[in-house]
């Protein structure tokens, strides 16, 4: 019986991940309706504000839902948000039994959906493939439990860990194939962050990938002294822009705001922007998945403060050398090897001659 339940839950999970990068700030959720050993309804949550997975599956099953069993990866919601509570529709449909992958960590729902269904005579069991479901929903889970978005640092470096030559040349260390893949991966994030030195030196656009129409990718610039140029390329965009600063400049602030840029100020932390305070602010704005694209000092700061959760590293088979050539990770760094951040759950790919490594960051 357990194997059969897990099989249906796995199929619901496969539906859920079809919408990866499209449901933020909501989790990835899938559902199937089963009757007499056959799936009669399938659904997944496609985007925030749209029907939830359970509603889509029940709609496909129609009248056959009466007396059937529902398998859903997340606990059905019992509160009013962008949509109404799913538990009402489950009860109206005549579902007799619900299997839930994982309990919703959102305090608005946590356990309440289960209690509501039980109260109305629906049999409920939870905890099937919960670990796998939590992994694909790490941004949502972290936001609900820690009040912070999931942070991924992206690095493109030479084999000896450099991101520029001693003369400052940095375009391009990695291959075109690596850059295309890195750019395409932006569709899985709802915010992209860079430091002011990267903006001043490279003038990046930080745009979402072509073909991701409607994708909202908020641009975050960490700029302690509010040095950003009003003609910066990333400001000429339909995407939202947030500048995080410490030092106030009323005239510059007003000009940026007239351009549609949001300016937020944090308390100073070693005369710099307080990154954790910025992350909390982004989470309050329902940004769950943040990509940090550089530069060296910003990446180093995220590692020093143990605020980065994942790392994506593109390595070119090039040896740049030079003590004055910029390394990919700045900041203070680890005092000892035992205290250095380590990459776990590693996955590797190749793009031409480049090696791509991604994994979870673990701190001692």
**Sheet with the most strands, sense and barrel status:** 9 strands, mixed
Low-confidence stretches are none
Instruction: Please list the strands of the largest sheet in the order they lie side by side.
Output: 10-9-8-7-13-6-14-16-15
Radius of gyration: 23 Å
Nearest-integer average pLDDT: 93
What is the global morphology?
Answer: elongated
- Cα separation of the termini: 41 Å
How many helix segments? 11
Care to count the β-strands? 16
Class inferred from helices and paired strands: alpha/beta
| Secondary-structure element series | HEEHEHEHEHHEHEHEEHEEEHEHEEE
Helix content: 25-40%
Strand content: 25-35%
Structural features, described:
- With 364 residues, the chain is an alpha/beta fold.
- The protein is built from eleven helices and 16 strands.
- It has a nine-stranded mixed sheet, with helices on both faces. A five-stranded mixed sheet has the order 2-1-3-4-5, sandwiched between helices.
- It is elongated, with a radius of gyration of 23 Å.
- The two termini are 41 Å apart.
What is the gist of this entry?
The protein is of the alpha/beta class and 364 residues long. It is 27% helix and 26% strand.
Observed structural traits:
16 strands; five-stranded mixed sheet; 364 residues
């Amino acid at each position: 019986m357990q194997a059969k339940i897990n099989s249906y839950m796995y199929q619901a999970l496969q539906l859920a991940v079809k919408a990866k990068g499209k449901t933020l700030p909501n989790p990835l959720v899938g559902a199937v309706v089963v009757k007499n050993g056959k799936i009669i309804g399938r659904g997944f949550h496609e985007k925030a504000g749209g029907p939830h997975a359970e509603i889509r599956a029940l709609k496909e099953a129609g009248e056959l839902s009466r007396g059937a069993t529902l398998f859903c990866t997340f606990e059905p919601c019992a509160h009013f948000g962008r949509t109404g509570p799913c538990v009402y529709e489950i009860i109206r449909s005549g579902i007799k039994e619900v299997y839930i992958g994982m309990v919703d960590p959102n305090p608005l729902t946590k356990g309440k959906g289960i209690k509501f269904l039980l109260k109305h005579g629906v049999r409920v069991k939870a905890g099937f493939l919960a670990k796998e479901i939590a992994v694909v929903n790490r941004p949502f889970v972290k936001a609900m439990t820690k009040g912070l978005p999931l942070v991924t640092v992206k690095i493109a470096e030479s084999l000896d860990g450099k991101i520029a030559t001693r003369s400052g040349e940095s375009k391009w260390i990695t291959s075109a194939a690596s850059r295309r893949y890195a750019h395409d991966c932006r569709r899985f994030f709802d915010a992209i962050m860079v430091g002011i030195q990267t903006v001043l030196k490279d003038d990046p656009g930080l745009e979402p990938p072509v073909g991701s129409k409607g994708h909202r990718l908020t641009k975050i610039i960490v700029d302690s002294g509010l040095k950003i140029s009003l003609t910066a390329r990333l400001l000429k965009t339909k995407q939202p822009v947030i500048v995080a600063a410490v030092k106030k400049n009323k005239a510059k602030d007003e000009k940026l705001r007239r351009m549609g840029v949001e300016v937020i100020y944090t308390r100073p932390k070693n005369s710099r922007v307080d990154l954790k305070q910025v992350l909390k602010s982004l989470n309050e704005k329902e940004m769950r998945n943040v990509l940090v694209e550089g530069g060296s000092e910003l990446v180093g700061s995220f590692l020093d403060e143990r605020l980065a959760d994942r790392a994506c590293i593109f390595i070119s088979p090039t040896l740049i050398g030079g003590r004055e050539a910029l390394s990919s990770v700045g900041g203070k760094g680890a005092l000892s090897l035992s205290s250095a951040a380590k990459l776990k759950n590693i996955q590797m790919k190749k793009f031409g001659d480049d090696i791509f490594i991604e994994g979870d960051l673990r701190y001692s």
